[in-house]
């Protein structure tokens, strides 16, 4: 592929990739925020890096679960839905998770959900993989949904 002629101006692809990225943010944030909130509320002594690592892992798991459910609603059987969800772009999911947790760490010291940091984390988590998801969709015609 000649990158100098790659079309970054397709409004339809930006819209579709934004929808796909938004679903990914929802799936990832459920496990991510749930993990951070659990440790925040229970006050279990655990290293911030450990909490954030667990939050990333749980975010990936909940994203895969959500994607599997969405695909099953699109008439995939469970096995194929799970296989497709697990085969989706981990680059996108991991970049989203790392960006969200790095934002949390830089703004609060890490593993701390506050009313003002959550929207920033979601925004950064959305913006980070969105261009990659556009590129992947435009180049390969591959979408999650």
List its traits.
6 helices, mainly alpha, globular, single chain, 145 residues
Question: What can you see in these coordinates?
Answer:
With 145 residues, the protein is mainly alpha-helical. It has one domain (13-140). The protein has six helices and no strands. The chain has helices at 11-42, 48-73, 78-87, 90-108, 117-127, 130-140. α1 (11-42) crosses α2 (48-73) and α2 packs across α3 (78-87). The chain is globular, with a radius of gyration of 16 Å. The relative contact order is 0.19.
Topology:
Elements: H1 11-42, H2 48-73, H3 78-87, H4 90-108, H5 117-127, H6 130-140
Helix pairs in contact: 1-2, 1-4, 1-6, 2-3, 2-4, 4-5
């Amino acid at each position: 592929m000649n990158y100098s002629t790659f079309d970054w101006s397709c409004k339809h692809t930006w819209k579709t990739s934004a929808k796909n990225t938004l679903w990914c943010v929802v799936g990832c944030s459920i496990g991510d925020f749930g993990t951070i909130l659990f440790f925040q509320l229970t006050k279990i002594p655990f290293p911030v890096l450990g909490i954030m690592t667990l939050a990333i892992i749980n975010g990936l798991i909940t994203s895969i679960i959500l994607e599997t459910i969405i695909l099953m609603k699109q008439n995939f059987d469970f096995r194929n839905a799970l296989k497709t969800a697990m085969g989706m772009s981990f680059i996108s999911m991991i970049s989203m998770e790392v960006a969200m947790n790095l934002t949390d760490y830089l703004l609060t010291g890490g593993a701390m959900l506050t009313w003002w940091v959550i929207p920033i984390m979601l925004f950064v988590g959305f913006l980070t993989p969105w261009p990659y998801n556009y590129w992947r969709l435009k180049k390969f015609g591959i979408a999650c949904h």
